[in-house]
Design goal:
The protein is α/β, with parallel strands linked by helices. The chain has helices at residues 20-29, 49-57, 70-78, 140-147, 151-162; strands at 9-11, 17-19, 34-37, 60-65, 82-86, 102-105, 116-122, 128-135. It starts with 8 loop residues before the first strand and ends with a helix.
Length: 163
């Protein structure tokens, strides 16, 4: 999101360059859920659960990518982060994203495995583009994991019910 800047930096809520951690904490403090946009095989090389755990701890609620590495997709779901794939030829590049957009993913209250849902991207100038996303929650049990905020919360709540 920053021209010519690589590494652990992004735009903060004030539009200024800051560390990804500081930006994420500022967005959390403001109550703003975060979305990551990614390319092909998002998560490749990061099959450890901490890659998804770090994403969740930063306040990311969804990752929208061209495709996912298999284990990382599963780990995201296990941490309560919803993976979505672009459809219809849209990509992070074709959308012309700058980091100043807001994203609204519709239909999350009734989401089903592999369902397509609309996503409205509102650009800084007020224009909107609605695209279709494929939910990569692949099974019914994964829906429950996400509804509980991840597999750990799911297990703990079920243990508490049984006690």
């Amino acid at each position: 999101m920053l021209d010519g800047v690589e590494g652990g930096y992004t735009k903060g809520p004030d539009g200024q360059q800051t560390s990804i951690f500081d930006a994420a904490m500022a967005y959390q403090e403001a109550g703003t859920p975060l979305v990551i946009f990614g390319g092909e095989q998002y998560g490749a090389g990061s099959s450890r659960d901490w890659a998804a755990k770090g994403t969740a701890l930063l306040g990311v609620k969804a990752v929208i990518a061209e495709s996912f590495e298999r284990i990382h997709r599963s780990n995201l779901v296990g941490m309560g982060v919803i993976p979505f794939e672009f459809t219809g030829g849209d990509t992070r590049k074709t959308l012309g994203l700058t980091g100043d957009e807001t994203v609204a993913i519709h239909g999350l209250d009734t989401i089903q495995p592999l369902q397509e849902v609309p996503c409205t991207i509102t650009y800084a100038d007020g224009t909107e583009k609605t695209i279709q996303l494929k939910c990569r929650i692949d099974t019914a049990i994964e829906i429950e994991y996400v509804e509980h905020g991840g597999v750990l919360h799911y297990v703990l709540r079920n243990l508490a019910k049984a006690a």
